[in-house]
Amino acid sequence: MNMYQGVRDALSHAMMRDDTAVVFGEDVAFGGVFRCTMGLAEEFGRERVFNTPLTEQGIAGFGIGLAAMGHTAIAEIQFADYIYPAFDQIVNEAAKYRFRSGGQFSAGGLTIRCPSMAVGHGGHYHSQSPEGFFMGGAGLKVVIPRSPIQAKGLLLASIRDPNPVIFMEPKVLYRSSVEQVPMDDYELPLGRAETLVAGSDLTLLSWGTPVYHCETALHMLTSPSDALAPYVPQSLRSAKVELIDLRTILPWDAETVAESVSRTGRLVVVHEAGRTGGVGAEIGAEIQKRCFLKLNAPVKLVTGWDTPVPMQFEKFYMPDPLRILDAIIETLTY
Amino acid sequence: MASLARIRPTIQRTLPFVRSIQIAADSSQLQEGASHSEPFKVNLHEDSFRGYNTEPPSLDVEVTKDQLLTMYRQMTTMRRMEMAADALYKQKLIRGFCHLAIGQEAVSVGMEHGTTHDDRIISSYRTHPFAVLRGGTIKSLLGELLGRQCGMSHGKGGSMHVFTPAFQGGHGIVGAQVPLGAGLAFAAKYDEKKIATYAMYGDGASNQGQVFESFNMAKLWNLPCVFVCENNKYGMGTSAERSSMNTEYYTRGDKIPGIQANGMDILAVLKAVQHTKDWVTSGNGPILLEFVTYRYGGHSMSDPGTTYRTREEVQRMRSTQDPIRGLQRYIEEWGLASEQDLKAVDKEAKAEVDKAVEEAKESPEPLEKDLWSDIYAKGTEPPFMRGREREEIHYF
């Protein structure tokens, strides 16, 4: 099963278990541009799976109103790049509804799915990673899965979480990542990072697509190709790097990351969004505070550049394995 | 206090043969005597409504003596409450923002009488009366404004954030509540509940893009939603004519029919609300409802309200078209109560509000721990959240 099928499977389970759950968004009734809602309208009826106009702000507001009445609203914003018209609704209404009504109302039943991150040729309006903009939205949760198993379990948890959740699906993984996904209804915990590779010399932290680039970089480190070999010192090739997938971006699992960095003394954070004001900056600040005396090197960020995602130069924009490898070497030899 | 039809130049320009709506508060006529015990009928002024792509409501409305007296008591109390808020703000006891609805009481009280608490009302930030009428108390409203524990949002919201189970809020972003209203209406339709949702906004918000997005969704999906434009003639400090290319707000729904109603005569408000409730609960889809009303005060407490309109204009509205004085005239002329009786009601209203002010003032401010409550659902919080300074980190 690949990731778009994992997402579809999760939506189907969510709708089966919960009569109030509805799925809506632009073109979702006939499957959505990435086929994540394929056949749901036939399975659950057009009253529960329906197309909306091209109305991002309206979709978010509509979903909040629906959720405020205790329903489960699963909205799709066709691309994360289009979430900005809905920013006001998400940050001012959804995130704050519970707090400002003293707990009387909330948009807890709302989950907004949106395909995000780069595919290599999306350009300015189809390759962005807007998770950082929501970091200040206390009351929201932001989740990014890395694979089909993760997507299904995290999406079910997001839909059932009593807080509004923005679920960003790395769109390049929809088809390229394939796993044996359990058919059952299961959830994976929100707010918890997952350690993929244990290590003791450096903590490598990422989420979504770049997790795979990190994995490639680790292979390059241990067994560099002939072309790379001169640049990878022999002494570093046996370094034990701990790879962590953050999974939930807000609220992020500072405990797990800090525990890891306390052991390794080094942290490299990799994300696709631009650097300034990005999630890496927040993680860096918190980790330097918590692990100041344990750090052997400054926290290193490998990110997109502070430019629009450039159409022709998307490959240079993205934090690719080479840049990650370089950051690892720099941090290990600091 | 005759019906001074206020002719607006734009109406003349766009609809030359249509008579403009009149907004006198006291132009309704008794049909046959007013009974003290039985319901009786009243004829509204023939220019109380106008319709767009639909017939306007009929002009007869049925009321009872008790209902009129209740309306009077509620309107008087609401005005007293808003005046108390005004005073508390000027004493610097209420901080932040505060938008008063003095002059617009016929809309809130009239809507309360035309709906039940199963119906849904969601509105903007000029909503103190709605929150109290729909299940709140004056103490909990003023407590919220003062930022005290007894407030309806436990003192955590303030003036723009007032809610009750029957009132879906109190929203501070201009126009943002309107798509939420579409969602509320969808939930009612999904649950097959025979109720109406009133999504309210002002003439200022009517130019927000998301209002039109909501119209489109509501008509597309035939949602039982009444979009209510409370047109008090000024969006903050800009008059409707200077902000809107079409000030006939009830006609701005394109294929959604609309009704314009006199928002100063509470009986016209009542009729319009009954009519639109019937409309949406009979499966006719959404409808627009514009109440032409007037706000006596400024937009908010920081606006004296006299830089963009003349004092004479405000004074004229107050003295000739006040909704409370209009209802008072009905009650007295129809022999339902004497001036002395109503004076007694005024006195009670003042006493009730004064008491609530004192009680609200005594309520303590929110506990420090409430800074971190209600952000995430209980039990699903992050491990910690930062407070005002580095040492003040709250662990859940």
TrEMBL record, chain A:
This enzyme's EC code(s): 1.2.4.4
Alphabetically ordered keywords of this record: Oxidoreductase
GO biological process: branched-chain amino acid catabolic process; generation of precursor metabolites and energy; response to nutrient
Database matches in InterPro entries: THDP-binding (IPR029061), Transketo_C/PFOR_II (IPR009014), Transketolase-like_Pyr-bd (IPR005475), Transketolase_C (IPR033248)
Cofactor: thiamine diphosphate
CDD domains tied to this protein: TPP_PYR_E1-PDHc-beta_like
EC main group: oxidoreductase
Domain Transketolase-like pyrimidine-binding: 1-176
Reaction catalysed by this enzyme: N(6)-[(R)-lipoyl]-L-lysyl-[protein] + 3-methyl-2-oxobutanoate + H(+) = N(6)-[(R)-S(8)-2-methylpropanoyldihydrolipoyl]-L-lysyl-[protein] + CO2
Oxidoreductase in keyword set: yes
SUPFAM superfamilies with a match to the protein in the record: Thiamin diphosphate-binding fold (THDP-binding), TK C-terminal domain-like
Oxidoreductase as UniProt keyword: yes
Record GO terms (molecular function): branched-chain 2-oxo acid dehydrogenase activity
Pfam families listed in its UniProt record: Transket_pyr (PF02779), Transketolase_C (PF02780)
Span of the signal peptide: none
PANTHER family per record: 2-OXOISOVALERATE DEHYDROGENASE SUBUNIT BETA, MITOCHONDRIAL, 2-OXOISOVALERATE DEHYDROGENASE SUBUNIT BETA-RELATED
Protein name according to UniProt: 3-methyl-2-oxobutanoate dehydrogenase (2-methylpropanoyl-transferring)
From TrEMBL, chain B:
Reactions this protein catalyses: N(6)-[(R)-lipoyl]-L-lysyl-[protein] + pyruvate + H(+) = N(6)-[(R)-S(8)-acetyldihydrolipoyl]-L-lysyl-[protein] + CO2
Keywords: Oxidoreductase, Pyruvate, Thiamine pyrophosphate
MF (Gene Ontology): pyruvate dehydrogenase (acetyl-transferring) activity
EC number: 1.2.4.1
UniProt entry tagged with the keyword Oxidoreductase: yes
Dehydrogenase E1 component domain span: 73-366
Broad class of enzyme this protein falls into: oxidoreductase
InterPro entries the record matches: DH_E1, PDH_E1_Alpha_Subunit, Pyrv_DH_E1_asu_subgrp-y, THDP-binding
One Gene Ontology term from the biological process aspect of the record: pyruvate decarboxylation to acetyl-CoA
Domain of life of the organism encoding this protein: Eukaryota
Cofactor(s) this protein requires: thiamine diphosphate
Matches recorded under Pfam families: E1_dh
Record function comment: The pyruvate dehydrogenase complex catalyzes the overall conversion of pyruvate to acetyl-CoA and CO(2).
Protein name (record): Pyruvate dehydrogenase E1 component subunit alpha
Organism: Obba rivulosa
